[in-house]
Amino acid sequence: MRVIISVFLIIVLVFTTVSCSDDITAGELSKEIVDQIKHIQTHFVTSLKPDCQNMQQVQLDFILYKQDDYDNPIILDPGDPNEIDADKNVILIMHGWLQDANSSGIIKLKNAYLDRYDANVIILDWSQIAKQAYTVAYCHMQRMSIQISKFLCHISSNLGVPLNEVHVVGYSLGAQLAGVSAQYVKSKCKKQIGRITGLDPSGPLFQNLPERRRLDKGDAGFVDVIHTDQMKFGYSGSTGSSDFYPNCGQAQPGCTTVKDIADDTTLPEIMCSHHRSLDYMIESVGSDHFIGVTCGMCPRYCRPNIINEIYTVMGEGATPQSRNNNKFYLTTKNVPPYSEGWTLSGAKLP
Ligand SMILES: *[C@@H]1O[C@H](CO)[C@@H](O)[C@H](O)[C@H]1NC(C)=O
């Protein structure tokens, strides 16, 4: 009997572990995608070319979570999303390349938000495009942004959701998508999104594009950006109204470059430094313990600006700063909890 119970427990354990981590593994990726990952990790100046031959209709799902049920979302009808409670804040999460709405980091971020706020937390699922080659997904940015802007303008005009209080949080390609969508909102319904948080916005193919093709500081009332993998998957250099450079914005501690990508290597392991931007954000929603200090020459030379030393919270608790104080440096630990555990009132030099 005892043996049967133990076997049963082991089976249950194995299954729950598997179903908790809905992250794609290298073995599930096509050779083309694995080659693109390797290419991006080794070449700063990428020779990737947009592959816009086969443009597709995009299928987007807006998945609404509320505090009363963390696990059973409502798939909104974009033409009639009346389950959104217009009296509560709207937080819109956009996943990154190769992810979907069930990816572990995205679900953790959603849960952290529901723990903190009684809000409408909406995850945009654009996985049908996100799971394709980077060079193909890139081509669909405009097309998806137009659809997203329609949704946002619709909830503004039909449900009375104040867009200037909406917070869009985008990771990787999802951060670029957030920026371009907000630009279409401006032209379509003359409204400005309140805040966009860009979690290591994608760099390859976006680097040095004009601002109208990527996330930039003009896209929302406040644009805060966390850089964790510059020169690789992440955009290099400041692009928000506040830019945060944990560990100088690249090669995060505890991350090693995965040289030989094994079949069971998960996406967060393959793109460890890139994914840290999402991990830091999740932790910040629960704690406000990441404290950045003004940095004059970030990310080239990451040292606190001792002449004008100002501390501020990175992540969810970030607030707009003056134009002259908009680059911040901080250090993190190499295992969770990643923050050094400081608070704004007891801040110390990194
Ligand atoms: C996410 O998980 C739910 C529940 O298991 C499932 O119904 C849904 O199809 C999944 N979504 C994606 C994009 O995989």
From TrEMBL:
Keywords, ordered alphabetically: Secreted, Signal
One Pfam short name: Lipase
Source domain of life: Eukaryota
Segment forming the signal sequence: 1-20
Compartments where found: Secreted
GO molecular function: lipase activity; serine hydrolase activity
GO cellular component, as recorded: extracellular space
Domain Lipase: 43-338
GO biological process: lipid catabolic process
Family listed: Belongs to the AB hydrolase superfamily. Lipase family.
The name this protein goes by in its record: Lipase domain-containing protein
Origin species: Ignelater luminosus
Higher taxonomy: Eukaryota, Metazoa, Ecdysozoa, Arthropoda, Hexapoda
